């Protein structure tokens, strides 16, 4: 069995080399080359159907490319077992539900499954409690997940992937059902994990909210990377108007770009 991928110096936790996904009749993702830096936060934005979630699922190795390679700390992801993948990357998908009345702490504990029968399992209880606390769920730890609101359930699943303790965390619109407090907790959690060396990739509709907390923005359009760089480089009227297919205004407020549709007041989320 291959060893668990581990950070080695400056080796990238995730690299896409010539990755594409499609068939003879359609292409979901055109040839893409990406390298993520350790401890970085990357946001993926774009119009609906632009390929954001497809790119994220290829990054997680939940989808296999038709061409190219996905490397995790230099190891080809296609050769890693499900357990080894779960020790390397954690993924919160858009559609996540629990049909049975499990308790909150039980669902969060699922994040530790890949570490069973390893020395890391000795810290399971503490890690689960820390993850629950990080999402403000301590008072709900013994509640049934089926009794919670949509936003509370999202926070439970956030705690679950945080408890997984992987060097790569992928979040697909994790903020969609969260209120203001939940989004602040999410931002704080992402920042803290990045400081600890975790590489985080976020897909979000809310450009203005994620921009101040990200090192890099990838703009998707029609299944390809339309732009890639620092927020101030990428969040421009020209780039976003082309990517979203509509006029977009970008203003500078307190040194950061604010994106809005023409005539929109006050600045709010830009859907993508």
Automatic annotation (TrEMBL):
Q: Where is the ABC transporter domain?
A: 14-247
Query: Is-annotated flag, keyword Nucleotide-binding?
Result: yes
Q: Which UniProt keywords apply?
A: ATP-binding, Nucleotide-binding, Translocase, Transport
List the CDD domains.
ABC_Iron-Siderophores_B12_Hemin
- PROSITE patterns reported for this sequence: ABC_TRANSPORTER_2 (PS50893)
Give the InterPro entries listed for this entry. AAA+_ATPase, ABC_transporter-like_ATP-bd, P-loop_NTPase
KW Translocase (keyword) present:
yes
One GO term in the molecular function aspect is: ATP binding
**PANTHER family linked:** HEMIN IMPORT ATP-BINDING PROTEIN HMUV (PTHR42794)
Protein's UniProt name: Unannotated protein
Organism for this UniProt entry: freshwater metagenome
């Amino acid at each position: 069995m291959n060893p668990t991928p581990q950070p080695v110096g400056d080796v990238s936790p995730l690299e896409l080399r010539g990755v594409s996904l499609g068939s003879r009749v359609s292409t979901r993702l055109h040839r893409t080359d990406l390298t993520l830096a350790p401890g970085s936060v990357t946001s993926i934005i774009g119009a609906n159907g632009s390929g954001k979630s497809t790119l994220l699922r290829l990054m997680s190795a939940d989808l296999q490319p038709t061409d190219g390679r996905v490397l995790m700390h230099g190891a080809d992801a296609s050769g890693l077992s499900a357990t080894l993948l779960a020790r390397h990357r954690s993924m919160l998908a858009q559609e996540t539900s629990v049909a049975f009345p499990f308790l909150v702490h039980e669902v969060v504990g699922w994040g530790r499954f890949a570490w069973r029968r390893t020395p890391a399992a000795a810290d399971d209880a503490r890690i689960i409690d820390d993850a629950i606390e990080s999402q403000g769920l301590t008072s709900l730890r013994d509640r049934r997940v089926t009794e919670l609101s949509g936003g509370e359930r999202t926070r439970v699943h956030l705690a679950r992937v945080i408890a997984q303790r992987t060097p790569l965390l992928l979040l697909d619109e994790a903020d969609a059902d969260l209120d203001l407090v939940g989004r602040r907790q999410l931002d704080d959690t992402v920042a803290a994990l990045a400081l600890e060396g975790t590489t985080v990739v976020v897909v979000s509709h809310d450009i203005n909210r994620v921009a101040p907390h990200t090192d890099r923005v990838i703009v998707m359009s029609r299944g390809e990377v339309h732009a890639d760089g620092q927020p101030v480089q990428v969040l421009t009227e020209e780039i976003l108007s082309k990517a979203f297919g509509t006029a977009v205004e970008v203003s500078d407020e307190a040194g950061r770009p604010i994106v809005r549709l023409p005539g929109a007041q006050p600045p709010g989320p830009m859907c993508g």
